[in-house]
Amino acid sequence: MIEQFARRLLTAKSPVLQSLRSPERAAEAARRLSLLAQDNWTTRRTRLAQEIRRDAARRPIDPSYLMYAVSEALPQDAVVVEEAVSATSALLSFLPYRDRRSFLGLASGGIGFAIAGAVGASLALPGRPIVAVIGDGSAMYSIQALWTAAHLELPITYAIINNRSYRILKERMVSMRGARQFTGMDLHHPEIDFTGLAQSLGVKASRVTDPRDIGPALRQAIGSEGPRLLEFVVADGFGDAA
After folding, report:
1. pTM, two decimal places
2. Residue 75, preceding bond cis, omega within 30 degrees?
């Protein structure tokens, strides 16, 4: 309702404001629009997409390329629940804003909301496909909510970005302290099997390691009935140490 009112108001006011402009102001507005067209979000996305496609064959999957591929595979009415943390910036560089309910992101310093948050989003927005893009560390805070998604047979696709670590903490250690000794920030020995974990909670799941499979896997999951989980194995950003 608010969006419709704002759209009608701006549509009605636009010709009035244009009629009040002087020729000089009109020329200045045209100049600014021309400059904006050279460096707006859409232009930057196009430029960045051209660059990121160079990493389309890299294995383990490049996280930024994964975010690009996710954005390309989404249907128009998808709702993205985001808790990607270290990949958030890349996701927002590619994900178009379609409406005020199309994106539900992490808004604070705490993590752990998205597995359960996707359930809430699906209940609040019936009929819209929910795609939850979540880091592996964040996912472990409320992984049990997968059972609820399965129990309610909700149309949620969980895209788990598995870099086998708390990469965001490593990045902050490097940027803020110049330290590269990471204690308790790796999630291997043993690695977490998100596919097996999801299946044990009633959610069909599969693992994706080849970047060529990202789009097909996402489209199939989104088009399925009930929840699905896709575990994307991505580069950890720190040498992929075993």
Report:
1. 0.85
2. no
pLDDT tens-digit readout, 93-151: 999 999 999 999 977 667 899 999 999 999 999 999 999 999 999 999 999 999 999 99
Query: Per the structure block, which two tokens stand in for 204?
Result: 């069909």
Domains (ranges, CATH) in the chain? 2-38 (no CATH), 56-233 (3.40.50.970)
Sign of the torsion formed by the C-alpha atoms of 221, 222, 228 and 234: positive
- 207 backbone dihedrals φ, ψ, rounded to 5°: -105, 135
Find, among 20, 19, 202, 167, the residue nearest to 89 by Cα: 167
DSSP codes, 53-103 = GGGTT-SSBPHHHHHHHHHHH--TT-EEEEE-GGGHHHHHHH----STTSE
- The Cα–Cα gap between 234 and 242 comes to 13
